[in-house]
Amino acid sequence: MASQSQLETLIELARRETDDAAKRLGMTLKAVADAEEKLTMLTGYRDEYGRRFEASQQAGITPMAYRNFQAFMEKLETAIKGQEEVLRHSQRKSEQEKRNWQEAERKRMSYSTLNDRAQAQALKQEAKRDQKAMDEHAARQAFYKR
């Protein structure tokens, strides 16, 4: 079994790895939230622009204004599709970082469990040594009392 200092070193390294993984996970979750917010903004803008266009269309618009509207809506749709891809990529990255964090945490917990077991074993051995010393002391006392 590994020595106490080796286990403590492994636990510290695993803790650092877990902390780093948690920071990366936090950054990817923020990227997902930012991507969702931007997508919501773009779709809201598209919907609002469409409503304004319908209102102005009832008042009558020129063919040039209609072509401009169509071109702008195509650009908005392209931007929305691009943002949806950014969101999907951010979500995949976030899921990967979550798995990395979970694996790092499992490793840290495994080392901690090993450390706990080693400490329990050391206490048990110490208790046995103490009991043996007490038994020997009692046996010597009994021997000299005869």
UniProtKB/TrEMBL annotation:
<dbReference type="GO" id="GO:0003774">
    <property type="term" value="F:cytoskeletal motor activity"/>
</dbReference>
<dbReference type="InterPro" id="IPR018006">
    <property type="entry name" value="Flag_FliJ_proteobac"/>
</dbReference>
<dbReference type="GO" id="GO:0009288">
    <property type="term" value="C:bacterial-type flagellum"/>
</dbReference>
<keyword id="KW-0966">Cell projection</keyword>
<dbReference type="InterPro" id="IPR012823">
    <property type="entry name" value="Flagell_FliJ"/>
</dbReference>
<feature type="compositionally biased region" description="Basic and acidic residues">
    <location>
        <begin position="125"/>
        <end position="139"/>
    </location>
</feature>
<keyword id="KW-0969">Cilium</keyword>
<dbReference type="GO" id="GO:0044781">
    <property type="term" value="P:bacterial-type flagellum organization"/>
</dbReference>
<comment type="similarity">
    <text>Belongs to the FliJ family.</text>
</comment>
<dbReference type="Pfam" id="PF02050">
    <property type="entry name" value="FliJ"/>
</dbReference>
<keyword id="KW-1003">Cell membrane</keyword>
<keyword id="KW-0145">Chemotaxis</keyword>
<keyword id="KW-0653">Protein transport</keyword>
<keyword id="KW-0813">Transport</keyword>
<dbReference type="GO" id="GO:0006935">
    <property type="term" value="P:chemotaxis"/>
</dbReference>
<feature type="region of interest" description="Disordered">
    <location>
        <begin position="86"/>
        <end position="146"/>
    </location>
</feature>
<keyword id="KW-0472">Membrane</keyword>
<keyword id="KW-0282">Flagellum</keyword>
<dbReference type="GO" id="GO:0005886">
    <property type="term" value="C:plasma membrane"/>
</dbReference>
<feature type="compositionally biased region" description="Basic and acidic residues">
    <location>
        <begin position="86"/>
        <end position="108"/>
    </location>
</feature>
<dbReference type="InterPro" id="IPR052570">
    <property type="entry name" value="FliJ"/>
</dbReference>
<keyword id="KW-1005">Bacterial flagellum biogenesis</keyword>
<dbReference type="GO" id="GO:0015031">
    <property type="term" value="P:protein transport"/>
</dbReference>
<dbReference type="GO" id="GO:0071973">
    <property type="term" value="P:bacterial-type flagellum-dependent cell motility"/>
</dbReference>
<keyword id="KW-1006">Bacterial flagellum protein export</keyword>
<dbReference type="InterPro" id="IPR053716">
    <property type="entry name" value="Flag_assembly_chemotaxis_eff"/>
</dbReference>
<protein>
    <recommendedName>
        <fullName>Flagellar FliJ protein</fullName>
    </recommendedName>
</protein>
